[in-house]
Amino acid sequence: MTAPELHLPVLQVVVPMLIAPLIVLLRPQGLAWAATTAASLLSFAIAIQLTTGVLGGHTYQYALGGWEAPFGIALEVNSLSALLLLVLTGASTAALLAGKASLDRQIEAHRQPLFFSAWLLALAGLAGILVAADAFNIFVFMEISSLASYVLVAGGPDRRALPAVFKYLIMGTIGATFYLIGVGLIYMMTGTLSLADMEIRIHEVAEQRPILVAAGFITVGLALKAAVFPLHVWLPNAYTYAPHAVTVFLAACATKVSLFVLLKFDFVVFQHNLLGHDVQFAAFLMPLAVLAILVGSAVAMFESNVKRLFAYSSVAQIGYILLGASMVSYLGLSGGLLHIFNHALSKGTLFLAVMCLSMQYANLQLEHLAGAARRMPWTMAALVVGGLSLIGVPGTAGFVSKWYLLTAALEQGALGMFLIAVIVLGSLMAVVYIWRIIEAAWFTAPAEAPPGAQQMRTEAPTLMLVVTWLAALSNIWFGLVTHVPRELATTAAANLLRHLP
Amino acid sequence: MSPETAILAALAVPLAGALLIGLTGRVNANLRETCTLLTAATLIYCVWQLLPLIFAGERPGVQLLDVLPGISIAFEVEPLGMLFAAMASGLWLINSIYSIGYMRGNREKNQTRFYVMFAVSLAAVMGIAFAGNLFTLFLFYEMLTLSTYPLVSHKGDAATVRSARTYLGILISASIGLLLPAIIWTYSVAGTGDFTVGGILRGHIEGPQIGLLLGLFVFGAAKAAVMPVHRWLPAAMVAPTPVSALLHAVAVVKAGVFTIVKIIVYVFGVDFLFAAPSSDWLFFAAAFTIIAASLVALKQQNLKRLLAYSTIAQLSYVVMASAILKPLAEVGAAMHMLAHSFGKITLFFAAGAIYTASKKTELGQLRGIGRRMPITMIAFTIGALSMIGVPPTAGFVSKWYILAGAFQADNYLALATIIISTALNAAYFLPIIYLAWFEKDNTPPGQEHGEAPFAVLLALAITAALTIGLFVYSAPVYELESQLVRGQP
Amino acid sequence: MEFLGIYYYWVFVVVLMIGFYAVVAKVNLIKKLIGLSIFQSAVFLLYITMSKVSGGTAPIFNDEITGLLYSNPLPQVLILTAIVVGISTTALGLGIVVRIKEEYGTTEENEIQEIDRR
Q: Using the beta-carbon criterion (under 8 Å), do A173 and C116 form an inter-chain contact?
């Protein structure tokens, strides 16, 4: 490998992190956005390069500063990290490219450099979580990304974002602190922070109570960050009142990264070592996943604000991911991980379409969106494609992960029948809430032209529309040409399961 | 062209046509109608090329894409699918002629959207007909539901939208809630979803599970309108009549029964299912649907709704015939698919002609209309006789084979059902014929009308002729469809 | 392990719960933030406690002096990082509270919810 390639894992974090403070200096109009988008594109390119290497069978190990683990800070990129890095950098780039017009409208010009700087810090932090191989660095990057996302969410003009961010801050910090307590307890018992080392050393002290307590704290802490039911209450308001481009970015990846850490810890460190722990993992998380799917979808069916509707839908989709993981089987875990990728595609498209809608409609309540399809046909068509992928119609990406989940459930016998019913019910509820939006847009007579709407151009800005349509088409592409995400997901699942006895 | 190209062309042509229709629609209406007719004609050319190959016993196929391990988009042409595709493509051309007359005669809005979605729906039908495995079938089945939705809700007013919601709701809920789990179950126990002569489930599934899986398939394929998932059919009658004629007499409903017959023959296997006692319920469900739908049809006053319930009953003829699980009955089922299409499309065309000429929709308004619209009513009579099963119409031939199959299986219940339902068919069709020809005209003065537009009449005449033609030329169809059962082990 | 030997850990738990209680039960936003600070301080205590080795001295390495028992420096370093994170969080939180006061005119959670409901 040539010299730059050797450093790819660390560049993935360093590039956005170093460019972030420079953005603050870019006062001229539009320059901050351009620089941020360029940095995001560069990160996306690095992620693609890493993925290519991983698909070729290579696992990247990197020692920061040449100090080897377990004394130095080690980074690792394997198929699971690559999958999520693609999602993260792709979502960030798409949100930035599409969001210029929306962000210009929602963020005042003099605050933009600071806002975009925070965006890159969030990107750097999330990327750092994905490449870190030791527990404490995960915490540090987690907090970097969280603090930056609080800034992002609060950046918009809606004042209701402020109490939403405050709640997000409180719950997020409690979650991170729980995680920290857990890591501290593990360190106390094993003397190491490196995940690979922990796996070995915990074995000797597995029955002792601090380890069990640590497992509990870490699981709950990460569940808080990942918006697992019933700790999801910060999510709907935060997503609804954030600037629209921010929602695109966060909805696609923020909670998934915490799920990544949760899965890594549970499978790499805990499963093998704790007595009967893998039973506990499934027993504890499966009912919560089921509840997330059912309650999340049910609330979405009755929600009238489009953004909040999709936010609750996200809670349900996180339930799907956890459902797959809690089956602790190759098919289930592959399905769950694949759903991370496919949900990012579908939810990303949906929120991009909502961003397009927001350019013409100030009020995103369903009653106010009546007749939207006549004024913005391309936007609504993209929304329909994203909706079909969310429902899991064959030919779309969402179908592929639902297929894996259903096939995995079939292996579970009697419990599997119940899980199949839950998954199918979730899809049917998704049909209902997507349908309500379609009905409002196509089949309800439009109200008077919204105040302040441009009369000349009724569709969304071209760049936004193009990116939205690229996202919509990628749903169909990855629904038919599935081998890249599938290979990443199945290899990752196999890797995780290898740690089990 | 090679068979593989013909198969792919059968899908590509309607889709390309849809694009062309959409583009020319902005330019000129006549150009647009020409595009529709040309696309339909091209489709016939592509599809009918495959007929001699299937007659000779060949089964051309093409594999497109591997979506998931073991799951691919693949096509394979076999007798049943060939029949369906040939019928749908041929009738599309005739229906397009009819549509031109109807849409212009009624000065309908959004005509371009109508023709575009029609073409897309036909592409979906071709995909269903030529599907080589369950996944491909499901993919195009869903595409058909979605592409026919704009056609059903064409009028756009509140009542139509509500009915269209029922249409979509029932079809999608059934397919995602029942059909999809059934397909996944099949894939996971049999390891494959490829349609194979003799079925793929032998040895993988037994006992009550067979009945359960069959139930998921039959009610999941709600397009076959087996009760109780039939409510979407009457709801869909809010669509313009060309839509009701082709889609709800021919394409959509036939896609449903086609799916059921195909699954019985190629997924379960006729003999396998015959030996499984848990599958007996299907026969009773179909028989019940026939009788119940015919009884409801008796009470209807709106012509299209009456025809809708008649369709539900006729569809279950096909299901019941294939549930008899004897070779002759399977052939009868396939023939009935064709015979019913010709007869029902004639009836719907006639109903649309009456509406276009006079805006009449209720039975009570049709007194004496035979004298004002002789051509229309002659065609209607032929179609009605076909439904009842009177020679020399197509309906007689297919009922003959179904009865023969019932005899072969010693299934006296089937015999009784067919006899009773024939009587019921006569009970609701003959009065219409009587009051159209033999009662005094009750058109209010000032609302006099003549015949329907020329294009409408042309299409009517062709389908009526086909209905009689199938009686005369039934041998080739029998030839084709008996291949369906000859391959049984 | 007598109570006195591990009483630091008891203190940790008590402080943790006091902080947690404040976060959950208090209605005033600033009091919630104070609770959060207390909550985080408890964690600092946990780490530093575990790093102190009985009889250990400050972990400063000197070539000439050998055979000394050092306290563990790693948790102390970790906690410095965590303290910085804590400060940033508190600062950000207080910044949000200032903005909330500007927009809503109050820093009581129930009043804010009341205003939003209207």
A: no
Give the best residue of C83, C92, C110, C111 to mutate against chain A (max A CB count within 10 A): C92
Rounded CA-CA distance B50/B60 in Å is: 8
Which chain A residues in 118-137 lie under 8 Å from chain C, judged by CB atoms?
A: 136
A180 and chain C in contact, CB less than 8 A:
yes
Q: Is B205 helix (H, G, I), strand (E, B) or coil?
A: coil
Chain A residues touching B156 at Cβ < 8 A: 443
DSSP three-state, residue B207: coil
Chain B residue with CA closest to A429: the answer is B173
Minimal-distance CA residue of chain B relative to A400: B68
Which chains pack against A, by 3+ Cβ pairs within 8 A?
B, C
What are the CA-CA distances from residue B25 to residues B34, B122, C84 (Å)? 11, 18, 66
Q: Provide the total of helices (H) and of strands (E) in chain A, helices listed first.
A: 20, 2
> What's the rounded Cα separation, in Å, for the pair A44 and A88?
8
Q: Hey, are the CB atoms on B68 and A431 less than 8 Å from each other? A: no
CA A410 – CA A404 distance, rounded (Å): 10
Per-residue confidence band for C27, with pLDDT thresholds at 50, 70 and 90? very high
Residues in B closer than 8 angstroms to A403, CB to CB, are 68, 71, 184
CATH topology for the C4-52+70-117 domain: Helix Hairpins (1.10.287)
Q: Give A150's contacts in chain C (Cβ within 8 Å).
A: 92, 96
Residue A266 class from Cβ within 10 Å (0-12 exposed, 13-18 middle, 19+ buried)? buried
- How far is the C-alpha of A307 from the C-alpha of B147, rounded, in Å? 27
Q: How many CB atoms lie within 10 A of CB B327?
A: 19
d(C-alpha A490, C-alpha B67), whole Å:
15
Q: Between chains, do A391 and B176 touch, taking CB under 8 Å as contact? A: yes
Whose CA is closest to A148, among A26, A20, A292? A20
Domain ranges of chain A: 276-501
Closest chain C residue to the Cα of A159, Cα to Cα: C103
Spell out which chain C residues touch chain A, with contact meaning CB-CB distance below 8 angstroms. Answer: 16, 20, 23, 29, 32, 36, 39-40, 43, 46-47, 50, 74-75, 78, 81-82, 85, 88-89, 92-93, 96-97, 99-100, 103-104, 109, 112-113, 116
DSSP symbols for A132-188? B-BHHHHHHHHHHHHHHHHHHHTTSS-TTHHHHHHHHHHHHHHHHHHHHHHHHHHHH
Cβ distance of C96 and A162 shorter than 8 Å = yes
Residue among C1, C18, C48, C89 with most chain A CBs within 10 A, to mutate: C89
Chains B and C touch (3+ CB pairs under 8 A): no
Q: What is the pLDDT along chain B (489 residues), one digit of tens a residue?
A: 788 888 888 889 999 998 888 888 878 888 888 888 888 999 998 888 888 888 887 888 888 888 877 788 899 888 888 888 988 888 888 888 888 888 887 877 778 888 888 899 999 999 999 999 899 999 999 999 988 888 888 887 778 888 888 888 889 889 888 898 888 888 888 888 888 887 888 777 777 888 888 888 989 888 888 888 888 888 888 888 888 887 777 788 989 989 998 888 888 888 788 777 877 888 888 889 999 999 998 888 888 889 889 999 989 888 888 888 777 888 888 888 888 888 888 899 888 888 888 888 888 888 888 888 888 888 899 999 988 888 888 888 888 888 888 888 888 888 888 889 889 989 988 888 888 888 877 777 667 777 778 888 888 888 888 888 888 888 878 877 777 776 543
Chain A environment of B181 (Cβ under 8 Å): 406, 420, 424
